[in-house]
Amino acid sequence: MAANAADKSTQQKDVVVELKTEFGTMKILLYGETPQHRDNFIKLVKEGFYDGLLFHRVIKDFMIQGGDPDSKNAPASKQLGAGDVGYTIPAEFVYPKYYHKKGSLAAARQGDQVNPEKRSSGCQFYIVQGKKMSDAEIKQMEMGMLGKAKEKRFYEIVRERSAEVQKARAANDQNALMKLQSEIVAQMEKEFESKASDYQMPAEMKEVYKTIGGTPFLDNEYTVFGEVIEGLDVIDKIAAVETNPGDRPKQDIKMTIKIVK
Q1: Confidence class of residue 10 from pLDDT cuts 50, 70 and 90?
Q2: 226 in helix, strand or coil?
Q3: According to CATH, what is the number of the domain 2-132+212-259?
């Protein structure tokens, strides 16, 4: 029992790291509730992996991204963003507790077409700047999340009824195809009758997005595994720099990271 309790305690432990740049220092809390991301990040920090790497992708009112191993001592003309460590990490979504508010630390990843499980890059990360949202923008975001979920379920039902769909297509029976589509839409809509509230942000989250800001459209798409607890102004300073096409800053912004707690 004692060993199990110790394992659980270790799994849930938060860790603080310090990220230094010429624009200032950020202290970042790594969440114990995303243990695989936390442990991987700590491993790389201890190895000195991030020291000397660049914030290679900076988009104002969106985020600042780093962790590409190819960015170390990279010539100004080099396109960055494709470097990695040869492995990925399973997604660890802890939503709605952790989300893309300003200062959130999240893992970069490849797109859904080649990465449907939304597995994270083994080393690249971004820190959210985002922007403050209005009530109308939040409402539109919620409707978008619901619409995306409905679309996903629609195509799942299509796959479940693929034999019927293929039979109608083979016979070129347009009436049968239209009937099937209507039935699938009706089934999907019925399933979502009691689920609409699942795609509404909690009141506290809405208030954060309205007053502090963030990028809510990334929620449940990329793993959030930490947050800046000191030095939010450093994000704004980095996000304001001039960039070249491809969003790489015109002047290199190097980082060093160490564990402090």
Answers
A1: low
A2: strand
A3: 2.40.100.10
